[in-house]
Backbone:
């Protein structure tokens, strides 16, 4: 059963991401956070894991360590630890390059907790599904939304999917992530040739 803590986390997520939209769209960012939390819960995740799913982008997108302190105070150090494991930047100091952040995150997957792997896998699955659907509409124009462009974005999702497959990440989510990334690669290869 979810408690009032989950409702409080949803309220925090809405407050922190209120003005944020999904890249290149008019979809409120909260839709992504709700989808990731739903995937976590459907996979049997705990309330702490579902809360971390709602808050997984708050530190890197909405205030760095100040937001991290709020997460720890309101939801506890375990939730904060999961959020930090799913972040590719702690939000403080100079932000490393896109490539450095993504390589570092991929390398960290072998070391993060089972809870972190669950939330990360759900996050990447939802993102990859959106990429696949957006590619079907926009074609190669999609890649302009992303710092990694076509090559970097496809590399990143393949690297994450493969890294999650190597560590006991939730099998059902990782298998679906592998299928979606393969679909995206095939769509992009066919579109790139035409």
Residues:
């Amino acid at each position: 059963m979810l408690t009032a803590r989950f409702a409080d986390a949803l309220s925090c997520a809405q407050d922190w991401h209120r003005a944020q939209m999904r890249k290149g769209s008019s979809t409120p960012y909260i839709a992504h956070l709700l989808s990731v939390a739903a995937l976590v819960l459907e996979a049997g995740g705990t309330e702490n894991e579902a809360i971390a799913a709602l808050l997984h982008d708050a530190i890197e997108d909405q205030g760095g360590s100040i937001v991290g302190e709020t997460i720890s105070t309101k939801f506890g150090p375990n939730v904060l630890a999961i959020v930090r494991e799913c972040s590719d930047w702690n939000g403080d100091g100079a932000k490393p390059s896109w490539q450095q952040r993504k390589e570092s995150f991929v390398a960290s997957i072998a070391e993060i907790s089972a809870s972190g792997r669950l939330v990360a896998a759900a996050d990447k699955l939802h993102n990859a599904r959106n990429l696949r659907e957006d590619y079907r509409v926009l074609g190669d124009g999609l890649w302009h939304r992303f710092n990694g462009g076509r090559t970097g974005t496809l590399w990143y999702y393949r690297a994450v999917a493969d890294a999650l497959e190597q560590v006991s990440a939730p099998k059902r989510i990782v298998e679906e992530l592998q299928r979606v990334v393969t679909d995206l690669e095939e769509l992009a290869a066919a579109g790139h040739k035409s």
In short: The radius of gyration is 16 Å. The chain has a mean pLDDT of 94. Residues 4-193 form a domain with the Hypothetical protein af1432 fold (CATH 1.10.3210.10). DSSP finds ten helices and no strands in the chain.
